[in-house]
Design a protein that fits this description.
This protein is 27% helix and 22% strand. An 8-stranded parallel β-sheet has the order 10-6-5-4-3-2-1-11. A hairpin with a 5-residue loop joins strand 13 and strand 14. The N and C termini lie far apart (65 Å). The protein binds alpha-D-galactopyranose (GLA).
Amino acid sequence: MRKLLCLLLCVATSAFAQKWEGLALTPPMGWNSWNTFASNINEKVVRETADAMVANGMRDAGYVYLVIDDTWSKKERDQAGNLVADPEKFPSGMKALADYLHSKGFKLGIYSDAGMKTCGGYPGSWGHEFQDALTFASWNIDYLKYDWCDHGTADARDAYKRMSEALRAAGRPVVFSLCEWGQNRPWEWAEPIGHLWRTTGDIYDSYDGRKGWESGWKLLLNQQYDLVPANGPEGLAKYAGPGHWNDPDMLEVGREGLSLAESRAHFSFWCMLAAPLMAGNDVRHMQPEIRDILTDKEVLAIDQDVAGKQGYRALAEPATQTEIWVKELSNNEWAVCMLNTGTAAADLTVDWNRLWTIHGHYDLRDVWAKKAVGDNSKPYTARVASHDVVLFRLTPAK
Ligand code: GLA
C-alpha cells in the first residue's frame, strides 16, 4: 500500500512539476541588455534604463521585464558553488537592483545557460540548476533567459526541464525563456516547460543581411514558416498561444543598421507574430520617432491581443515586391500587414479576396496612419516605401 501511495505521489509530482502557470498570458514585453551593451552591462545602465522607461512611457505601455543578459557574473563560482554577481559591474548586488526595479513597477530578468559555460564564457548552470534557481529566488528574480552554449552531449529537453523544475522548486514565480535557437524543435515539447522559446539564431540590426550566426529580421521572419514547411504558410504559428510563445529574438528597433521604415516594419511584424517584445536599443537616448514606434498603443494591441494567435504569411509575390501577413484577433477582428520587399518605393495592393481566411465585410483602419481607409469591398492600393509596411486592423462592418 505504501509503495502504491509513493508511486502515485511520484507520478502526480512529476506530472505537476512543470512551469509556473498563469505567467506571460500575452507575449512578455521588456528590454534586454545584449543587443546594445553586450558585456558592457552594469547596474548603472539598468537603473538609468528603468528611469528612462518610466519617463518615456515604455513602462506604462507594458515593457516591464528588464533582462540582464550574459556577462553579469564573476568568472568563477564561490567556494560553495554559488553564482556571484560581478562586484565591479553590480556593486550593490542583484537583490538591491531587483528591489529598485520592483519599486518602480518593473520586474528583473537574468541570464544563465544550460551548459557548463555561457556563450560569453561565464559559469553555466549545468549541475547547479537547483542551487542557481534558489540564488535567483533569493535575489527576487522574475524572469530567466536560459541559453544553450557549451552543452556537450546534453539532451535539450532534459536540460531545460531540469531548470524548469528547479525554478518551481525554488518557490518564486519566474517566466522561463528558453534560448535554444530552435535546434531541437522546442515548439514541439517546450510548452509545459517554459513560456517562450527562441526559434532561430541571433538577430542583428539589419533587414536581410547575414553575419555568421546573426541574421537580419526579415530572414528570421521567413524562418517562421521555412522551419516547418510541412505546416504550410502557417509555419510555427500553431505552436504559440497564451503562456507559450515562439520567440524570433529581441527587437533591433531604433538601432543604427535599420532605417526608420525598417524599424517600423520589424516592429509591425514582431507584433503580427505575437512575439515577445524585448527592446534591444539604448532607450536612454532614442529619437522621438523610435519611442513612438515602440509605444504605439494600437500596434501593441495587435501583439498583446488576448486570443494569443500568431500571424502567418498569406501571400508572397516577388514580382510585385509584396508580402502580406494576417493575424487573427479576438472578437472576429484581424490584423493585416503589407510589406514592400523591394529596394524602391512601389504601389502595393491588397486584394482582400486573395486572403482566403478572412471572410465577410470589414472596415479598414490604417493603424500607423491612424485613420479609417474604407472597407474590404474593393482592393486597397497604397504607395509604400522600400521595406516599409501598411498595417491594417479589420473590424466587422456595422
Ligand atoms: C547567445 C544568445 C544571445 C545572447 C548571447 C550572449 O548568442 O542567443 O541572445 O544571449 O548568447 O552571449
